[in-house]
Design a protein that fits this description.
It contains seven helices and eleven strands. The chain is an alpha/beta fold. The strands form two sheets. The chain has a nine-stranded mixed sheet with strand order 1-9-8-7-6-4-5-3-2, with helices on both faces. The protein has a two-stranded antiparallel sheet with strand order 10-11. Strand 7, helix 5 and strand 8 form a beta-alpha-beta unit. Helix 2 packs across helix 3.
Length: about 325
């Protein structure tokens, strides 16, 4: 389904989130964000505890039999939704670039993943974060040239599909209400894991109800031809000089098949806009739109709030009990 991008201009004190998305009959119009509002009645009651379990999943990659993952289940009388999170090139751990992660400890998770795990879990959704680097002997990929990386999108795609299969097999998970999210390298993994041009994706018995990719690299899947197996949102920084938004806008416009692809642009935002960290120039990153000149990374408060509100509205509709989605 072809789609044109929407552009959100973050204005402090006013989040412009109500624009209708062209070619987007599958997706809701998004109401202005109210941080004090409660989740809709269709959402499960917030869980009473926030304790993760460290689990190991059978991998779809023959060279890496098992994948470590952090799982936040919920207590519910009925099977509940689950959201799989895919980390970026820096991994899922705090201090991962310095080798300080402590495998098996929730305290070692990065600030971003602690935030999103808590945010999603509070909606009554289970959360699963998969570690694609540690079992393959890597701490981070960001400072590696693309041509020198030993962990590539084939690995990430196998991991994502394995995580979805594992989730669908858990007694407390509703296999019809799964979602997939990823950031940067993990956002590219979301695209790769949805593209039905790959036989393993086309043949997968488990598919997410929706997917969200934050500032992914889109050029590879665009060149391959993108045929998403589920509805997809792309959250893009308009000023991103690490993974440029233009290929993602083109991918959304050119995507084939029945599922909507929406590219949401946040004006003035750079890579990593959904954080509270100040914008800085990372000269240690050899890739980006200007190889060798570094890339800008950091948060923008308005884009963070706007993207979070949009994310929750999209997932609430996609993961609601059939017939109860809010509009």
């Amino acid at each position: 389904m072809r789609s044109m991008p929407s552009r959100l201009t973050p204005v402090l004190g006013l989040l412009l989130l109500g624009a209708t998305l062209v070619g987007c009959s599958h997706w809701p119009e998004v109401a202005p964000h109210d941080s004090t509002s409660a989740p809709p009645a269709s959402a499960a009651a917030p869980p009473t505890s926030f304790e993760p379990q460290w689990v190991q999943l059978p991998s779809g990659d023959a060279t890496t039999p098992m994948l470590p993952a952090w799982w936040w289940p919920v207590s519910s009388a009925q099977p509940s939704p689950l959201v799989v999170l895919l980390h970026g090139c820096g991994g899922m751990f705090s201090g991962s670039e310095r080798g300080e992660q402590r495998v098996g400890s929730e305290r070692a998770l990065s600030t971003r993943f602690k935030h999103y795990a808590a945010l999603l879990h509070a909606q009554g959704w289970q959360v699963l974060i998969v570690d694609s680097l540690t079992p393959r002997g890597e701490r981070e990929l960001c400072t590696q040239r693309l041509s020198q990386r030993r962990v590539h999108q084939g690995h990430r795609r196998a991991d994502a599909l394995a995580a979805l299969r594992w989730a669908a097999q858990q007694p407390g998970v509703d296999p019809q209400r799964l979602a997939l999210m990823g950031w940067s390298h993990g956002g590219s993994a979301v695209l790769s894991s949805l593209n039905a041009r790959y036989p393993e994706v086309r043949q997968s018995p488990v598919r997410p109800a929706a997917a969200v990719a934050y500032y992914p690299g889109c050029e590879a899947e665009r060149q391959r031809g993108f045929e998403p197996s589920a509805p997809l949102w792309l959250m893009l920084g308009a000023d991103d000089d690490w993974t440029a938004p233009e290929p993602c806008v083109a991918l959304a416009r050119e995507a084939q098949g029945p599922h909507a692809v929406q590219a949401q642009l946040f004006e003035g935002a750079v890579h990593g806009f959904d954080s509270t960290a100040p914008v800085r120039l990372r000269r240690d990153v050899p890739n980006g739109t200007r190889p060798g000149q570094g890339v800008h990374v950091g948060g923008q408060p308005a884009a963070l709030a706007a993207s979070e509100a949009l994310l929750l509205q999209v997932l609430r509709n996609a993961l609601a009990v059939p017939g109860t989605a809010s509009h």
